[in-house]
């Protein structure tokens, strides 16, 4: 299956993408992973992307598109893939369609993870990260540490990242609404969109998505 996963920040795309890709036995292709891999490996695309980032500029769509196409060309993606973070705007969506058409293939579905905006803000603004180990993540409401401000695992100080402050989260949502949300209507016109309510336990959301894809139990 060839799937695009979309949804606002805090919808749980990364978590759901990993579960769905494993259940469907297809590679999870994340924009973040693509950038990190190309930059760390010093590929021509990575060098080009880093030059923009080092200058404080946004990486052009053309570079992101070429990275995604290069990844979809790899052998493990021949039988399908799950795209997470790409396409991010209409230009990228149109480029993806052109690429797939050139290969004589098409998308099977676009999964739209739906979460109320207030819940998104609550999820992100409540996150607390351990300064000693960023893999230790807590939440002010959903996953409280035993002692406020102290990591249960290693005793490190818990803090709120600048990106997780409420005003920053709301700005990120504005960007999502203006740049990414329009691709949902674009794909609705192609009758590809399946809306998945993303409230509830991780495994419940995964099961809803699998059922929508006709792969449920």
Automatic annotation (TrEMBL):
EC number(s) from the headed UniProt entry: 2.7.4.3
SUPFAM superfamilies, sorted: Microbial and mitochondrial ADK, insert 'zinc finger' domain (SSF57774), P-loop containing nucleoside triphosphate hydrolases (SSF52540)
Keyword Iron-sulfur: no
Pathway the protein contributes to: Purine metabolism; AMP biosynthesis via salvage pathway; AMP from ADP: step 1/1
Region called NMP, residue ranges: 30-59
Subcellular location per the Swiss-Prot or TrEMBL entry: Cytoplasm
Gene3D superfamilies, per the entry: P-loop containing nucleotide triphosphate hydrolases
Superkingdom classification of source: Bacteria
Keyword ATP-binding annotated: yes
UniProtKB keywords: ATP-binding, Cytoplasm, Kinase, Nucleotide biosynthesis, Nucleotide-binding, Transferase
Catalysed reaction, written as an equation: AMP + ATP = 2 ADP
Ranges where the Adenylate kinase active site lid domain occurs: 127-163
Main localization (coarse): cytoplasm
Sequence positions that bind AMP: 31, 36, 57-59, 85-88, 92, 161, 172
Residues holding ATP: 10-15, 127, 137-138, 200
GO molecular function (one): AMP kinase activity
CDD domains to which the protein is assigned, alphabetical: ADK
The protein's role, per its UniProt record: Catalyzes the reversible transfer of the terminal phosphate group between ATP and AMP. Plays an important role in cellular energy homeostasis and in adenine nucleotide metabolism.
Subunit structure: Monomer.
Domain-related comment: Consists of three domains, a large central CORE domain and two small peripheral domains, NMPbind and LID, which undergo movements during catalysis. The LID domain closes over the site of phosphoryl transfer upon ATP binding. Assembling and dissambling the active center during each catalytic cycle provides an effective means to prevent ATP hydrolysis.
Protein family according to the UniProt entry: Belongs to the adenylate kinase family.
Protein's UniProt name: Adenylate kinase
Gene name of the encoded protein: adk
